[in-house]
């Protein structure tokens, strides 16, 4: 009997397969198609012949832990202990999985805000716990009334994602005030903050869980070097949590992967000395603005994009078809692969919206826009 009976081929795999079969431009999966910073690849090339190929300590390469602590202090003015509060993970997904498996017990409840990324629910179900899906507002902001109504003494975690995938929305200070009130009301509640796009925000600066001292002892943050440095195939991220929670997370992590691949840790540790992570927002804002300007000539209605490298668009004035059907039609007839937003909801909520990834080179975006003008 399957432990995950409702899990099949993901929408991301499906749309990428269709893109390959139809020779379509793939704007569905969230991976960049432009070169990695040559400074980083040069570091990797040099390290390949050095003695960096054996296990690192379970928590991570010590110099990298130090660099993350320094980065966190510089970005958020938060001081974290390298030995006890930071863990290098095999991507953000492993960090999320290990956290949920470590902290959530059978029959606990975990709040997920829909639309949501698909890696949250499986580890909850594998813990014999109950995912509670709470819909965001129509503009994809948190509905605090519904969230509070869904929270009870048995709620162990609330998972937040800011900046938000798939919609590109970001949280306001008031959202964090409301979150603090919720945590105050439920002493057993812990926050799992998915911040993999933390350095990819635009007009408004990112507000992190790290900016909120009241939440530090009750929260876990998850970050991604893969997203920040467009090296998604490296599958390397990190978790920051107070020691009493991190102790439990490490217990699971050591039996999942024990330690993350060594050469990537050493390479990123060196790269952090020369890269300006604060410049990532302006880099991707140029991509966003370029893509949005191209799509102005189409019949699609563009929704606000405040962070991430995804652009959501409504096709409501083009077609009455459901978004999965419309997305498949885009691949087969127009030659552009996207992701239907309904796939991020537990109940497949119909929004007549699709998601584009604009982390692509200019030529790819131009060609995609030319095809979309045929709609």
From TrEMBL:
<dbReference type="InterPro" id="IPR015424">
    <property type="entry name" value="PyrdxlP-dep_Trfase"/>
</dbReference>
<keyword id="KW-0032">Aminotransferase</keyword>
<protein>
    <submittedName>
        <fullName>Methionine aminotransferase</fullName>
    </submittedName>
</protein>
<dbReference type="InterPro" id="IPR015422">
    <property type="entry name" value="PyrdxlP-dep_Trfase_small"/>
</dbReference>
<dbReference type="InterPro" id="IPR051326">
    <property type="entry name" value="Kynurenine-oxoglutarate_AT"/>
</dbReference>
<feature type="domain" description="Aminotransferase class I/classII large">
    <location>
        <begin position="25"/>
        <end position="372"/>
    </location>
</feature>
<keyword id="KW-0663">Pyridoxal phosphate</keyword>
<dbReference type="InterPro" id="IPR015421">
    <property type="entry name" value="PyrdxlP-dep_Trfase_major"/>
</dbReference>
<keyword id="KW-0808">Transferase</keyword>
<dbReference type="InterPro" id="IPR004839">
    <property type="entry name" value="Aminotransferase_I/II_large"/>
</dbReference>
<dbReference type="Pfam" id="PF00155">
    <property type="entry name" value="Aminotran_1_2"/>
</dbReference>
<dbReference type="GO" id="GO:0008483">
    <property type="term" value="F:transaminase activity"/>
</dbReference>
């Amino acid at each position: 009997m399957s432990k995950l009976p409702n899990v099949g081929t993901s929408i991301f795999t499906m749309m990428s397969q269709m893109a390959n079969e139809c020779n379509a431009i793939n704007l569905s999966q969230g991976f960049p198609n432009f070169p990695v910073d040559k400074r980083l690849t040069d570091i990797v090339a040099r390290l390949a012949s050095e003695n960096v190929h054996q296990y690192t300590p379970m928590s991570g390469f010590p110099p990298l832990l130090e660099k993350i602590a320094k980065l966190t202090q510089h970005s958020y003015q938060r001081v974290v202990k390298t030995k006890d509060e930071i863990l290098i993970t095999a991507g953000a997904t492993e960090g999320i999985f290990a956290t949920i498996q470590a902290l959530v017990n059978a029959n606990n409840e975990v709040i997920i805000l829909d639309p949501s990324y698909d890696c949250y629910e499986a580890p909850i179900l594998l813990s014999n716990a109950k995912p509670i899906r709470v819909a965001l507002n129509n503009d994809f902001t948190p509905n605090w009334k519904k969230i509070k109504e869904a929270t009870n003494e048995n709620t162990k975690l609330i998972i937040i994602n800011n900046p938000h995938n798939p919609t590109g929305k970001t949280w306001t200070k008031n959202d964090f005030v409301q979150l603090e009130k919720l945590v105050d009301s439920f002493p057993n509640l812990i926050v799992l903050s998915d911040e993999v796009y933390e350095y990819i925000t635009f007009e408004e600066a990112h507000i992190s869980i790290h900016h909120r001292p009241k939440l530090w002892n009750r929260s876990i943050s998850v970050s991604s070097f893969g997203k920040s440095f467009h090296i998604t195939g490296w599958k390397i991220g990190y978790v920051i949590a107070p020691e009493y929670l991190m102790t439990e997370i490490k217990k699971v992590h050591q039996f999942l992967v024990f330690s993350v691949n060594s050469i990537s840790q050493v390479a990123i540790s060196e790269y952090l000395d020369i890269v300006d992570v604060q410049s990532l927002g302006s880099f991707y804002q140029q991509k966003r603005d370029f893509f949005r300007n191209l799509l102005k000539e189409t019949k699609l209605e563009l929704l606000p994009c405040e962070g991430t490298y995804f652009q959501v668009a409504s096709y409501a004035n083009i077609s009455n078809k459901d978004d999965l059907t419309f997305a498949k039609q885009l691949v087969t007839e127009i030659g552009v692969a996207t992701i239907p937003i309904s796939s991020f909801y537990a109940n497949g909520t119909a929004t007549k919206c699709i998601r584009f990834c604009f982390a692509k080179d200019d030529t790819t975006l131009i060609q995609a826009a030319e095809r979309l003008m045929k709609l």
